[in-house]
Amino acid sequence: MTKPSPKISKNSRERQAEEPQVSQLIQARVKKLRDLAEAGIPGFATGFKPDVSAQAFAQKFAMITESDVSDAMVRMAGRIIALRIMGKATFLRLRDASGDVQAYLARDTLGADDYKLLKQLDIGDIIGLSGVPFRTHTGELSVNVKDLKILTKALRPLPEKWHGLTDVETRYRQRYVDLIVNPKVREIVRSRTRIITEIRNFLTDQGFLEVETPMMQSIPGGATAKPFVTYHHSLDRNLYLRIAPELYLKRLLVGGFDKIFEINRNFRNEGISTQHNPEFTMLEFYQAYATYSDLMAMIEQMVSKVALEVLGTLKVTYDGQEVNLTPPWDRMTVREALLRYADLTEDEVDDRNSLFIKAVEMGLQVDKDDPRGKLWMAIFDEVVENKLWGPVFVCNYPVEVSPLARRNEDDPTVTDRFELYICGREIANAFTELTDPLDQRSRFEEQVLARAAGDEEAHFLDEDFLRALEFGMPPAAGAGVGIDRVVMLLTDSRSIREVILFPHMRPEKGGQ
RNA sequence: GGGCCGUUAGCUCAACUGGUAGAGCAACUGACUCUUAAUCAGUAGGUUUGGGGUUCGAGCCCCCGACGGCCCA
């Protein structure tokens, strides 16, 4: 590959000229790189194999005392995050993927030549070292370094050691720096992965098969949302990034799979906020011969099990308030929730005109032709949602806002659908699936009318999906669980951007 | 989409009523063989987010834009 040349290319020199303040700090490090090269030492090495992590080192040698002289050689590698040079002795703090370790370098142990190398070291460099464990006078387990190798010279300085990097904009834009200096961020990443792994295990253990369905779709469906449009050149047609996998997963039910799930990204062309990223991760699972009641029990089990596995407790603190995830969770209908939280009487909640007047009084954007179900949900979103702190399944959503859900057998104006709310946020959405292709067609047609009337979020009519239903889909229930929301809940994160490694940002100035 | 707030050295922050832009850390030079925000002495580092305006004079006041945060829809 490229030889370890200390020379900066013309381009980088020009670029640095545009950033004079950076260049001064960078150039000091480039000079060290050049000095190293002149001494025959590459600034970007390869081939060093550590044999113990910082965490394993701490466990393995926990019993070492100050008077012990160990001859157990260890090889460790990591990034220098603190450097204290005191003449002929030096302490540095090394950070690897597992944690931190302190290293001690004495001229007499390391040799005068190697000790001189220290002059060329900076905070941020990645080094490899070999040495023996010992305990310092102040009691800290450390490595007494016998041999030192620079693995990667860092050309940019890390943020200040005391306050670190706190500017949220820089943290998200330069997540790599955030990850280096803010251990909490790494923890959230690990928690996220564990949560997803636990969910996957839970479903797999119950006989669910993980599948992948198209993320680029000709007809976006399965949710009420505005899609992103992209373009396929050789097909000369628009494609949409999926807003949900639902219609494809149901095709698989038609095809004969009876327990399936998918964990993957959905894309919705909506505003960006602390609660919304344009791409977000969703679990959807479908089970034949199940009803939405079965899924309530299942989600209750799944989320509480994941919380227990990842946090070790079912009492979660979110935003300073406790929420207890111990099953069983509350269940109430949308109508009951409105009566309880929205200051409506029984007569008002059942009367479209009263609801409309209420909604207008609240300053909600409602249309005078909106059906009762739409008004219900407008009021629900406004005043009920954020009051639902404890885990609660809100059931029986109006048919007008549930074009893919099966009608309730006792009350055909609502569907066998629920949403799960925890800490005032929607976590999951599930329903007994509509299997009747004729009913499904008429629901789609209503959506097409809404779209023609200007509703950009209304569903498209998917003729192939209807054809699939006409072949017969087994009775089934399906659920969508917002993975980012679950991770936020279990990591006490108030912004979705904290749980997404690279959240969407507008281009920074001077960016492409 | 609307309102409010913010953007000053690589990082974290100061700068009174409009009057020469500062500090700590990081960097550089030197001292120092058990430090842990190491210490001590010295040096250097700025298009104050961009553009325009008012003014003898603008980091500060006014206008427009960029990006971010919070709240609202």
What's the β-strand tally?
A: 18
* Strand residue percentage: 15-25%
* Separation, N- and C-terminal Cα atoms: 28 Å
- The amount of helix comes to 25-40%
Strand order, largest beta sheet: 6-10-11-18-17-16-15-14
Derived from helix and strand composition plus strand pairing, the structural class reads alpha+beta
CATH architecture of the largest domain: 2-Layer Sandwich
Count of runs of 4 or more consecutive helical residues:
18
Largest sheet: 8 strands, mixed
Average predicted confidence as pLDDT = 91
CATH superfamily of the largest domain: Bira Bifunctional Protein, Domain 2
If you compute it from the alpha carbons, what radius of gyration comes out, rounded to the nearest whole angstrom? 29 Å
Give an overview in words.
This protein is of the alpha+beta class and 512 residues long. It folds into 2 domains: 138 residues, Nucleic acid-binding proteins (OB fold (Dihydrolipoamide Acetyltransferase, E2P), Beta Barrel), CATH 2.40.50.140; 258 residues, BirA Bifunctional Protein, domain 2, CATH 3.30.930.10. Helix content is 36%, strand content 23%. Strand 1 and strand 2 form a beta hairpin. It is elongated, with a radius of gyration of 29 Å. The structure holds one RNA strand of 73 nucleotides.
